[in-house]
UniProtKB/TrEMBL annotation:
Transmembrane segments: 55-75, 366-386, 393-413, 425-442
Protein name: Adenylate/guanylate cyclase domain-containing protein
Keyword check for Membrane: yes
Region annotation Disordered: where it falls in the sequence: 1-39
Residues covered by the Guanylate cyclase domain: 487-619
Keyword vocabulary terms for this entry: Membrane, Transmembrane, Transmembrane helix
Organism: Sphingomonas rhizophila
Keyword Transmembrane: yes
GO molecular function, one term: adenylate cyclase activity
Biological process terms in GO annotation: cAMP biosynthetic process; intracellular signal transduction
Source organism phylogeny: Bacteria, Pseudomonadati, Pseudomonadota, Alphaproteobacteria, Sphingomonadales
Amino acid sequence: MNRETPVTADDDGAPKPAAVSTGERHWRDTPNPIDDSDSPSFEAVKRDLAKVPPVRLVITILLLLLSLGIARYSWGLPVSRGFDEETNRRVLHFPARADETPIRLPIALDAERALYDARAYRATLMRRVEEDPRILVISFDQETLRMTAKRSPLDRTMLAQALTNIDKLGARAIGIDILIDQPQREDPELFAALRTMRTPVYFAYATSSANAADVESWQQEFMDRWFAQLAGTNIHKASIRGEADSDNVMRRWPQHVPGLPTFMPIALTGRTEFTGYEGSVLYRSPANVERNVFAEFPIQLFADPATASAFADQVKDRIVLIGGNLPDVDRFDTPATRYTDKTISGLEVLATETAQILDGRMPGRVGGGMLWVLAILVVTAGMFTAMLDVRPWVALGAILFQLVFFGATPFMFELIGMDTYGLPAAGWLAGWALAFAATNAADRAVTSDQRRYAQSALGKYLPRDIAAQILKDPEKLSLTGEKRFLYTLFTDIEGFTSLSHVLPPERVATLLNAYLDGMSNIVLDHGGTIDKFVGDAVVAFWGAPIARPDDGDRAIAAAIAMTDFTANFSLKDSNDGAMLGRTRVGLHYGEAVVGNFGGEGRLSYTALGDAMNCAARLESANKHLKTVALVSQEARDRSTSDQFRPMGRIAVSGRATPIVVWEPAQHMDPEERAVLCRLWTEFDAGSLAALDEIKQICLTHSKDTALAYFATRLGEVGPGALSN
């Protein structure tokens, strides 16, 4: 046998490779090539990206950029649509201008609004309050319209009477959410009442430039003349401009528009620090569901001095808001409308904003720079999660945790008092999902190639079905030693060492590679695992990493196929004198320790123990017994094959008990095999006549040296003995 690697023996006689110097650099300094458990890091990302095909890499990068854009701009793109008066055409502006409408992504915007409404409504339920003692709402309702027989404009006589009575009750300030934009015959009464007001009164005012849809230029001109007549009185203009979103939900304060007077809630409270505030409207819920946050009464109760005096405690030192509360005019949805189907009047929106000012609540929003940081964090998390190489349940846990975290974080921000309007909650989830999907697709493309390569590599040592199972469930390949009962097989070529000295080295290499390739195919085709090659020897086993019920039959069939293969191989490749000797095979069944063994940097999946040693001894015993293949009694008993003939007992180094061995004899007549087995059993029991019959069988097989030597040995050692 040609041992190209120096071999020594361990304590029990099993061969093992001797240590070989590898130079100054120690092998522990090199990375483990089979360790593919890199934790996700930027270096790992760079290595993985380097393996992605260029076209797929470009697509992946574009998708990641898209996911980043979604995670940052799901509320609206940084582009606005405006109108160029010089060209009389619509134009786009980047970055978006504050006085223009930004371009929205309809589906993303709807999702963001829905999530914001859920957060705001949840926060509203957490902000339950008793009836606000600082604000009183007095409204024109349906009953008022019936009594005055007037719908639009609202009756100014009743307004004048109510203002006079409220002024006497000591209100802190009065805000009137009614536009006086056209003349009425009851105007003299209203003027008379307003000129005598001691309480500051703030009337609604709007301009045609800021409210083109509701106010025409002639209406603005009328309001300007009307207020000019009240100069020097306690009557003031105040803006009532509101900015409902396109879905008619009043979520935020209006933008401050130059040219408009002070916003009415700011004017009523005198808190000028709220000027320019454009945050969210902070709605509240009543502590008592049967009452409202603000006390509200119809205006007709205050038009009559007798009934008005009964509300003295309700009016004194309060901010009074007067306006319409009608079912079909000036009504808005709130974040709670999705869940309660209730709308509120514009008058109540003003009351809510006034209370927010009195509470001093101006929650800040996350700035643009931080939104970029969060978007990058979200996309990066999706990328790294897609590259996690962990157990499926761990990966699923990581995915669920991140989805819950990124989904719940905006709710937590809202509950602790942050303004989350404009926070891309849906964008985070969508951006994370897109980044995960894009990276996962690229990673799968690389992994698929690696998997095919790994399956091909495993297929050189394991059967393809077992290799596929291990790739699907790596736990089936034990990474630590475990005891298994295996069918262990050793082979050797007779005279290969001498042959290797005769042939040129390149011819030896070609011949040996072709031989080992054929032997490997036999092992794999029969479901075995290739342990190693030692020169021209093949070491294989059945029963690990996955055991099968018919492993015994597979192993014996492989042993027979190996002997046949060598004979055919020699005939085919002997044209240049490269006639290989017979392949000797030893097969045993026993317990071994199987797993990955080696040092810190190199591992080998192999089997160790008595079963391996015994198979090696059986292979060596072929030379002494003139046989081609020897199978131990333990292996034969676990096979359904009957193609064996006895070869007696042999003593094996390292074992106290002799081994009964059998030789596969598939070419021998089955009846003769059966007779030979019977005769050997009889001889072993003490019948010397059985030996004569065995010798008679040998005469009919004059060229069968193994059988002849078997009969000779029996005659030499006698019944019940063993061969050395």
